[in-house]
């Protein structure tokens, strides 16, 4: 039996995360970042699982109609970070239109006592980084590469990932034989300016 074609995924609908307190989270996303509170769902039971877990689920709208959403479970518990993942890895990135918007937002966040890293140059876009009240790392990114540049980059993505996968398979074999202790490093360093000068 032939499977149906994959759905045409249009855009992100929402990213959802736990929060400690709905009002604390609303203040950050609406009053500081400027994302309007748009929708709330409240229930005692989880529709997908049927389990009893009272919650308030609330959504902030982005310009493209997508949302970032949160669950306040009513227990005042801060979400725990992943124990095996550095804090900078898991994050949500939002696009803004200009580098000036990054700089303006950085000033706005800092005026509210929020630590901001960047503006960081990723060559194809520039970013700032900061944490929300729930420990979620956020990124605002302004694209600087044009569509033609991104199209050219897309032609090598599969080959580069295949090369990484082949090297990782070899690394796994070496690790199983006790010959590899360190994590696998990429063969290419796209950001040499951040490497220590001794490397």
List the helices and strands and how they pair.
Blueprint: E1 14-19, H1 22-32, E2 37-45, E3 52-61, E4 67-72, E5 91-96, H2 99-111, E6 117-121, E7 125-131, E8 137-143, H3 147-176
Parallel strand pairs: 1-4, 5-8
Antiparallel strand pairs: 2-3, 3-4, 6-7, 7-8
What would your notes on this structure say?
By secondary structure, the chain is of the alpha/beta class. The protein is built from 3 helices and 8 strands. The strands form 2 sheets. Strands 1-4-3-2 form a 4-stranded mixed sheet. It has a 4-stranded mixed sheet with strand order 5-8-7-6, with helices on one face. A hairpin with a 3-residue loop joins strand 6 (117-121) and strand 7.
Element pattern in H and E: EHEEEEHEEEH
How large, in whole angstroms, is the Cα Rg?
21 Å
Tell me about the biggest sheet? Answer: 4 strands, mixed
Mean pLDDT: 94
The tally of strands reads 8
Shape descriptor reads globular
Share in β-strands:
25-35%
Structural class: alpha/beta
Strand order of the largest sheet: 1-4-3-2
End-to-end distance, in Å? 55 Å
Instruction: Please bin the fraction of helical residues.
Output: 25-40%
How many helix segments?
3
Which regions contain 5 or more consecutive residues with pLDDT less than 50?
A: none
